[in-house]
Amino acid sequence: MHDDDPAWGPLPVRPAALRWLLIPLTVLFLPFWWLVWVLLAIGFSGVAAVAQLIVYVVPRAENGAVRVFDATLGQVPFLPLWCVTPVALLKEGDSAYYRARVDRRVEKQTRRVETSPLHRELELGAHYFRGAGAGYVLRVATEQGWNLHPVLRSHPRRRLRLRHNGRPRPDLRT
User: Fold this and answer.
1) Contact 23, 86 (CB under 8 A)
2) How far is residue 158 from each of residues 7, 79, 81, measured CA to CA in Å?
3) pTM to 2 decimals?
4) pLDDT at position 98, please?
5) Is 134 exposed, middle or buried, given 0-12, 13-18 or 19+ CB atoms closer than 10 A?
6) Is residue 132 a contact partner of residue 102, using CB atoms and an 8 Å limit?
7) Rounded to an integer, what is the distance from CA 172 to the centroid of its chain?
8) How far is Cα of residue 155 from the mean position of the Cα atoms in its chain?
9) 49/54 Cα distance (integer angstroms)
10) What is the chain's percent helix, strand, coil content, to nearest 5?
11) Contact at 8 Å (CB) between 132 and 98?
12) CA distances from 94 to 6, 12, 57, 145, 154 (A)
């Protein structure tokens, strides 16, 4: 599907000096980032109440309201790309680790969909699939009934938003 496009491949390995610089930056700036994110979320929840009234009056405005909130609060990730954990620092460039991580997450979310149809959406940040690539995530997820979200946009270098089609997987073990 997106195998030829380099944007859907694994993200490049960060230089060693940059990786070790990102740990102190993460420790210093991540709490401030989360505070700003929470304040934005509180502010947008007030706006959401007004938007919900508009959606009740004009039913077709729901997709537009979802897109507006995605374009605002959705652009501020809870865990930014510059944030690096010690595990991610050690596993930098290890594609097998990231592939196994993606496989477990997609499988777990697929099982949740099968038990409860309310959990049909999956969002993965680039820190989650950095070494495997967005193309790998999409290939694995498509095999289990996931597709790119029809309303919310995905960007292969930052975040993938997937939606399950809601149909149970066929049992191939029998």
Assistant:
1) yes
2) 10, 11, 7
3) 0.70
4) 93
5) buried
6) yes
7) 29
8) 9
9) 9
10) 60, 10, 35
11) yes
12) 18, 11, 51, 27, 24
Alpha-carbon distance of 118 to 17, in angstroms, equals 44
Length of the chain as a residue count: 174
Is the distance from CB of 144 to CB of 105 less than 8 angstroms? no
Task: Enter the tokens of residue 73.
Answer: 């609060």
How far from 66 is each of 30, 72, 156, 168, CA to CA, in Å? 27, 10, 20, 27
What value does the mean pLDDT take over residues 23-42?
86
Look-up of token digits 């309201």:
65
The amino acid present at 114, given as its one-letter code, is: E
3-state SS assignment for residue 92: coil
In 10 A of CB 106, how many CB atoms?
Answer: 21
Rounded distance between C-alpha atoms, residue 15 and residue 19, angstroms:
6
Write the pLDDT tens digit of every residue in 74-108: 677 777 777 777 788 888 888 999 999 999 999 99
In the sheet with 121-125, reading across from the earlier edge strand, the strands are 121-125, 159-164, 146-148
